[in-house]
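Q: How would the structure tokens look for this protein?
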Amino acid sequence: MRLASGELAVFTRRGPGAHAPMVAAIADRAGLPTVRTTPRHTAQPGCQIAGRATDLQLVLRVAPERLYGLVG
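A: Here is the predicted structure in token form.
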């Protein structure tokens, strides 16, 4: 998903509300993969969900090891 900050993120778990899940940023606002996977709470200003990801090729290139431990 695309965040209001411009980052690309993947869903990791439910948040306190149905419209505010926890996500992990995997790309910066320029679309470049981040060095570190950063947890984000979509209820915080600037981290709201802005739309769906359109560059699904980036998601396919993310090593699963980057996401281990973020889900659950």
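The mean pLDDT is 82.

The radius of gyration is 11 Å.

Upvote if useful.
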